[in-house]
Amino acid sequence: MMRVPIIGITSHSRNPLGEVVLPGTYIDAVQSSGGNPILLPPTQTDPEALLSVLDGLILSGGGDIHPIHYNGEDHPTIYGVDDDRDTFEITLAKLALLKGIPVLGICRGMQILTVATGGNLIQHVPEVYGDAIDHRLDHPRRPIPHDVEILPESRLFGLLKETQMNIVSWHHQAVAEFSSDWQLAARSSDGVIEGIEHRNHPWAIALQWHPELSMQDLAHQRFFRAFISACQA
Fold first, then answer.
1. What is the pTM of this model?
2. Could you tell me the CA-to-CA distances from 9 to 41, 73, 93, 223 in Å, in that order?
3. Catalytic annotation present for 231
Protein backbone atom coordinates (compact mmCIF):
# COMPACT_ATOMS: atom_id res chain seq x y z
CA MET A 1 0.00 0.00 0.00
CA MET A 2 1.13 3.54 -0.74
CA ARG A 3 1.77 5.75 2.28
CA VAL A 4 -0.82 8.43 2.87
CA PRO A 5 0.93 11.72 2.02
CA ILE A 6 1.30 14.37 4.71
CA ILE A 7 -0.07 17.72 3.56
CA GLY A 8 0.83 20.86 5.48
CA ILE A 9 -1.81 23.62 5.42
CA THR A 10 -0.94 27.11 6.58
CA SER A 11 -3.25 28.61 9.19
CA HIS A 12 -4.10 31.95 10.72
CA SER A 13 -2.17 33.19 13.73
CA ARG A 14 -3.69 32.78 17.19
CA ASN A 15 -6.92 34.70 17.69
CA PRO A 16 -7.66 36.70 20.88
CA LEU A 17 -8.79 33.46 22.58
CA GLY A 18 -5.44 31.84 21.82
CA GLU A 19 -6.92 29.51 19.19
CA VAL A 20 -5.16 28.62 15.94
CA VAL A 21 -7.94 28.71 13.36
CA LEU A 22 -8.40 27.29 9.87
CA PRO A 23 -11.71 26.58 8.10
CA GLY A 24 -12.41 22.87 8.24
CA THR A 25 -13.18 22.71 4.52
CA TYR A 26 -9.43 22.66 3.75
CA ILE A 27 -9.00 19.63 6.01
CA ASP A 28 -12.07 17.91 4.56
CA ALA A 29 -10.85 18.41 0.99
CA VAL A 30 -7.44 16.91 1.73
CA GLN A 31 -8.81 13.97 3.71
CA SER A 32 -11.51 13.12 1.18
CA SER A 33 -8.84 13.12 -1.54
CA GLY A 34 -6.55 10.71 0.29
CA GLY A 35 -4.19 13.02 2.17
CA ASN A 36 -3.28 13.44 5.83
CA PRO A 37 -3.54 17.15 6.74
CA ILE A 38 -1.56 18.93 9.44
CA LEU A 39 -1.80 22.61 10.35
CA LEU A 40 1.17 24.96 10.02
CA PRO A 41 0.70 27.99 12.31
CA PRO A 42 2.98 30.94 11.51
CA THR A 43 4.71 30.68 14.90
CA GLN A 44 6.99 27.97 13.51
CA THR A 45 10.64 29.07 13.48
CA ASP A 46 12.18 26.51 11.12
CA PRO A 47 10.22 26.31 7.84
CA GLU A 48 12.89 24.19 6.19
CA ALA A 49 12.60 21.53 8.89
CA LEU A 50 8.82 21.52 8.46
CA LEU A 51 9.08 20.95 4.72
CA SER A 52 11.45 18.04 5.28
CA VAL A 53 8.56 16.01 6.74
CA LEU A 54 5.85 17.19 4.34
CA ASP A 55 4.83 15.60 1.04
CA GLY A 56 2.83 18.63 -0.07
CA LEU A 57 1.97 22.19 0.92
CA ILE A 58 -1.26 24.19 0.74
CA LEU A 59 -0.98 27.95 1.21
CA SER A 60 -4.45 28.83 2.45
CA GLY A 61 -6.61 31.94 2.29
CA GLY A 62 -6.66 34.79 4.78
CA GLY A 63 -5.99 38.50 5.21
CA ASP A 64 -4.00 40.82 2.99
CA ILE A 65 -0.23 40.69 2.53
CA HIS A 66 1.63 43.74 3.75
CA PRO A 67 2.43 45.96 0.73
CA ILE A 68 6.08 46.19 1.80
CA HIS A 69 6.58 42.68 0.41
CA TYR A 70 5.74 43.74 -3.17
CA ASN A 71 6.78 47.40 -3.19
CA GLY A 72 3.15 48.45 -2.93
CA GLU A 73 1.56 51.40 -1.19
CA ASP A 74 -0.83 51.40 1.72
CA HIS A 75 -4.54 51.38 0.84
CA PRO A 76 -7.61 52.04 3.01
CA THR A 77 -9.18 48.68 2.13
CA ILE A 78 -6.24 46.58 3.32
CA TYR A 79 -7.22 44.38 6.26
CA GLY A 80 -6.06 41.42 8.32
CA VAL A 81 -2.33 42.04 7.84
CA ASP A 82 -0.22 39.60 9.87
CA ASP A 83 3.52 40.23 9.66
CA ASP A 84 4.45 36.86 11.16
CA ARG A 85 2.24 35.00 8.73
CA ASP A 86 3.55 36.98 5.75
CA THR A 87 7.17 36.21 6.60
CA PHE A 88 6.49 32.56 7.38
CA GLU A 89 4.46 31.83 4.26
CA ILE A 90 6.73 33.70 1.84
CA THR A 91 9.65 31.68 3.19
CA LEU A 92 7.67 28.44 2.92
CA ALA A 93 6.67 29.26 -0.65
CA LYS A 94 10.24 29.96 -1.73
CA LEU A 95 11.54 26.77 -0.14
CA ALA A 96 8.76 24.57 -1.55
CA LEU A 97 9.40 25.87 -5.06
CA LEU A 98 13.14 25.41 -4.64
CA LYS A 99 12.82 21.85 -3.33
CA GLY A 100 10.19 20.75 -5.86
CA ILE A 101 7.56 19.97 -3.21
CA PRO A 102 4.01 19.96 -4.63
CA VAL A 103 2.37 23.24 -3.65
CA LEU A 104 -1.17 24.54 -4.03
CA GLY A 105 -1.94 28.21 -3.45
CA ILE A 106 -5.54 29.16 -2.66
CA CYS A 107 -6.74 32.79 -2.68
CA ARG A 108 -4.20 34.55 -0.42
CA GLY A 109 -1.94 31.56 -1.14
CA MET A 110 -1.90 32.46 -4.83
CA GLN A 111 -0.88 35.98 -3.88
CA ILE A 112 1.85 34.64 -1.56
CA LEU A 113 3.34 32.56 -4.39
CA THR A 114 3.19 35.58 -6.68
CA VAL A 115 4.91 37.89 -4.20
CA ALA A 116 7.48 35.25 -3.23
CA THR A 117 8.63 35.06 -6.84
CA GLY A 118 8.81 38.78 -7.55
CA GLY A 119 5.27 39.60 -8.70
CA ASN A 120 2.91 42.26 -7.41
CA LEU A 121 -0.74 42.69 -6.48
CA ILE A 122 -3.78 44.82 -7.25
CA GLN A 123 -4.66 46.60 -4.02
CA HIS A 124 -8.42 46.67 -4.57
CA VAL A 125 -10.02 44.82 -7.50
CA PRO A 126 -13.05 47.12 -8.03
CA GLU A 127 -10.76 50.11 -8.62
CA VAL A 128 -9.13 48.33 -11.56
CA TYR A 129 -11.83 46.01 -12.94
CA GLY A 130 -15.03 47.67 -11.79
CA ASP A 131 -17.98 45.82 -10.31
CA ALA A 132 -19.31 43.86 -13.29
CA ILE A 133 -18.35 40.73 -11.32
CA ASP A 134 -18.52 40.55 -7.55
CA HIS A 135 -15.48 38.69 -6.23
CA ARG A 136 -16.67 38.78 -2.62
CA LEU A 137 -19.79 39.62 -0.66
CA ASP A 138 -19.40 41.68 2.50
CA HIS A 139 -23.00 41.96 3.73
CA PRO A 140 -23.31 39.26 4.89
CA ARG A 141 -19.65 38.18 4.71
CA ARG A 142 -19.51 35.06 2.58
CA PRO A 143 -17.98 33.73 -0.65
CA ILE A 144 -19.83 34.48 -3.86
CA PRO A 145 -20.18 32.44 -7.08
CA HIS A 146 -19.08 33.59 -10.52
CA ASP A 147 -17.71 32.04 -13.71
CA VAL A 148 -14.04 31.61 -14.66
CA GLU A 149 -12.49 30.64 -17.97
CA ILE A 150 -9.79 27.94 -18.00
CA LEU A 151 -7.21 28.23 -20.77
CA PRO A 152 -7.49 25.03 -22.87
CA GLU A 153 -3.71 24.83 -23.32
CA SER A 154 -3.08 24.97 -19.57
CA ARG A 155 -2.13 22.18 -17.23
CA LEU A 156 -5.08 23.26 -15.11
CA PHE A 157 -7.46 22.35 -17.96
CA GLY A 158 -5.92 18.89 -18.05
CA LEU A 159 -6.86 18.45 -14.39
CA LEU A 160 -10.30 20.08 -14.33
CA LYS A 161 -11.40 18.99 -17.84
CA GLU A 162 -13.44 22.19 -18.12
CA THR A 163 -12.94 25.42 -20.07
CA GLN A 164 -15.56 27.32 -18.07
CA MET A 165 -16.55 26.76 -14.46
CA ASN A 166 -18.76 28.30 -11.84
CA ILE A 167 -16.64 28.79 -8.72
CA VAL A 168 -16.83 30.61 -5.40
CA SER A 169 -14.42 33.30 -4.33
CA TRP A 170 -13.93 35.88 -1.62
CA HIS A 171 -11.19 38.43 -2.20
CA HIS A 172 -10.72 42.13 -2.86
CA GLN A 173 -7.09 41.91 -3.99
CA ALA A 174 -5.65 39.94 -6.89
CA VAL A 175 -2.49 39.29 -8.87
CA ALA A 176 -1.43 42.25 -11.00
CA GLU A 177 1.73 40.82 -12.55
CA PHE A 178 3.52 37.52 -12.02
CA SER A 179 7.11 36.62 -12.79
CA SER A 180 8.24 34.66 -15.85
CA ASP A 181 8.33 31.53 -13.64
CA TRP A 182 4.55 31.35 -14.02
CA GLN A 183 2.03 31.24 -16.82
CA LEU A 184 -1.62 32.17 -16.95
CA ALA A 185 -4.08 29.30 -16.47
CA ALA A 186 -7.45 30.95 -15.78
CA ARG A 187 -9.16 34.31 -15.60
CA SER A 188 -12.63 35.74 -15.12
CA SER A 189 -14.44 37.63 -17.86
CA ASP A 190 -13.63 40.99 -16.27
CA GLY A 191 -9.92 40.24 -16.64
CA VAL A 192 -9.00 39.24 -13.07
CA ILE A 193 -6.28 36.58 -13.01
CA GLU A 194 -7.86 33.49 -11.46
CA GLY A 195 -5.21 30.80 -11.94
CA ILE A 196 -1.49 30.48 -12.58
CA GLU A 197 0.82 27.49 -12.91
CA HIS A 198 4.58 27.20 -12.59
CA ARG A 199 6.49 26.61 -15.80
CA ASN A 200 9.25 24.41 -14.35
CA HIS A 201 8.12 23.08 -10.97
CA PRO A 202 6.75 19.49 -10.97
CA TRP A 203 3.41 20.58 -9.43
CA ALA A 204 2.81 24.19 -8.42
CA ILE A 205 -0.62 25.64 -9.19
CA ALA A 206 -2.39 28.60 -7.63
CA LEU A 207 -6.07 29.55 -7.76
CA GLN A 208 -7.67 32.82 -6.75
CA TRP A 209 -10.92 31.02 -5.98
CA HIS A 210 -11.68 28.49 -3.21
CA PRO A 211 -11.83 24.96 -4.65
CA GLU A 212 -12.16 23.47 -1.15
CA LEU A 213 -15.62 25.07 -0.94
CA SER A 214 -16.82 23.22 -4.06
CA MET A 215 -15.94 19.61 -3.34
CA GLN A 216 -19.39 18.52 -4.46
CA ASP A 217 -18.16 19.38 -7.96
CA LEU A 218 -16.50 16.50 -9.84
CA ALA A 219 -13.93 18.79 -11.47
CA HIS A 220 -12.71 20.06 -8.10
CA GLN A 221 -12.62 16.50 -6.78
CA ARG A 222 -10.35 15.54 -9.69
CA PHE A 223 -8.20 18.58 -9.00
CA PHE A 224 -7.59 17.72 -5.34
CA ARG A 225 -7.00 14.05 -6.12
CA ALA A 226 -4.38 15.07 -8.69
CA PHE A 227 -2.65 17.21 -6.07
CA ILE A 228 -2.63 14.36 -3.55
CA SER A 229 -1.33 11.96 -6.21
CA ALA A 230 1.52 14.33 -6.97
CA CYS A 231 2.32 14.43 -3.25
CA GLN A 232 2.38 10.61 -3.10
CA ALA A 233 4.86 10.55 -5.97
1. 0.97
2. 9, 29, 12, 17
3. no
